[in-house]
Design goal:
about 0% strand; mainly alpha; 4 helices; Four Helix Bundle (Hemerythrin (Met), subunit A)
């Protein structure tokens, strides 16, 4: 099973975003390890912690976007909302079926690919805008 690697995360120009991204990868890595060799309850607990981390991280980004009147705010927030909804559904499916292969594939493929692409595109542009309008 693949494990998330912080070296694959492209840096952006806002430090709290980089720190949140790194923390997300560390949590994701603990989930993937737990899927391989921990109890269902441990996997569930780590998934819920990951969901909570993302809620806080996204709200921090959204607060900064509102503060600087970031024009594509609704588009960026819409992606956050969509992914949180999708992640919540994946966690519910995990709780119903305890399908380790399904949740590992979702995290390693669907979520990971979105995460990298989101940082390279939306987060990079957002961070540059925040820095330009930081006063």
């Amino acid at each position: 099973m693949t494990h998330a690697d912080t070296k694959l995360i492209p840096p952006v120009t806002v430090e709290f975003m980089n720190n949140d991204h790194e923390e997300a990868v560390e949590i994701l890595d603990t989930i993937l390890a737990a899927i391989e060799n921990s109890t269902v309850d441990e996997v569930t607990s780590r998934l819920e912690a990951f969901f909570a981390h993302n809620q806080v991280h996204f709200s921090r980004e959204e607060e900064q976007m509102r503060r600087v009147n970031f024009p594509p705010y609704s588009c960026h927030k819409g992606e956050h909302d969509r992914v949180l909804f999708e992640l919540a559904e994946a966690i519910e499916q995990w709780k119903e079926r305890n399908d380790r292969e399904y949740i590992a594939h979702y995290l390693n493929c669907t979520l990971w690919n979105w995460f990298i692409n989101h940082i390279k595109t939306m987060d990079t542009v957002t961070a540059m805008f925040i820095n330009q309008h930081a006063h």
